[in-house]
Design goal:
45 residues; mainly alpha; 42% helix; elongated; Dihydropyrimidine dehydrogenase (NADP(+)); dihydropyrimidine dehydrogenase (NADP+) activity; oxidoreductase
Length: 45
Amino acid sequence: MCTYNQADWEELSQASEKAGADAMELNLSCPHGMKEKGLGLACGQ
């Protein structure tokens, strides 16, 4: 999991690409037990 920080996502995507990944799937639904904090919504926005 990444924080709500663009640099973290860039680092993850670049590392995945370097490792040979063709695609990256993002699940932006609310993490289990975190819906009351709106974390999934924050990532999707």
